[in-house]
Specification:
By secondary structure, this protein is of the alpha/beta class. It is about 35% helix and about 10% strand. Strands 1-2-3-4-5 form a five-stranded parallel beta sheet.
């Protein structure tokens, strides 16, 4: 049916420097082409927390899961995300590419990211590079606050994708890597399921898919 989560950080780890724009483009283009019109949801770079990189020099944190990770590093390290956005937008000309932003907590963050995508699309158009101007841009729903703000976020997001890997620990206020709280770190409490209908019922009137 498609690729629901293309984890781009796998291309960035285990190397001394970030992959160049053209290298990324060839990977994204290949994925889009081989799926023959089925959607490929490419998640923008999601590092920090349990996914450190030797570059950029991310600060050491006491609780990195609640700190400087995902979208939160983009403004300070603009060259990383701009290169990736250019590669993704270029690849959108070769198939059904969707772009998803990780670790969104506020409407302001989502609006900032959307504007970066628009800026990259405009720059590539000025360079005469083909792309899909209607490429969907969505949000990974992993911060509980997002589930309660979908009606506002729908103005700057085309779709939402539930990411339980982080959402569950955030919901239960526990680090999923802590062995001392095994009953909570992998918990799927019934009350968590109350977020799904809230998210869907908020997205439906806005014409947004969860």
């Amino acid at each position: 049916e498609g690729v629901g989560l293309f984890r781009t950080e796998m291309m960035f780890t285990g190397r001394a420097s970030a992959p160049a724009e053209d290298e990324q483009f060839e990977v994204y283009k290949g994925a889009a082409a081989v799926m023959r019109g089925r959607p490929v949801i490419i998640r923008a770079l999601d590092v920090g927390g349990d996914k450190p990189l030797p570059y950029p020099n991310l600060p050491r944190e006491e609780n990195p899961f609640l700190g400087y990770r995902g979208l939160r590093i983009y403004q300070e390290h603009a060259e990383l995300i701009t290169s990736q956005l250019r590669a993704v937008v270029r690849a959108s000309a070769y198939g059904k590419v969707w772009l998803m932003e990780p670790m969104v907590s506020t409407v302001g963050e989502a609006r900032w990211f959307r504007q970066r995508v628009i800026d990259v699309q405009a720059a590539l158009e000025a360079e005469g590079v083909d792309s899909d101007p209607a490429m969907p841009v969505g949000i990974m729903l992993e911060v509980p606050a997002v589930a309660l703000a979908i009606d506002q976020l729908s103005h700057v997001a085309d779709f939402f994708s539930i990411g339980t890997n982080d959402l569950c620990p955030y919901f239960m206020a526990v680090d999923r890597g802590r062995r001392q709280v095994p009953g909570l770190s992998h918990a799927r409490p019934p009350v968590l399921l109350t977020l799904w209908p809230i998210a869907v019922s908020s997205a439906d009137p806005c014409g947004r898919r969860v």
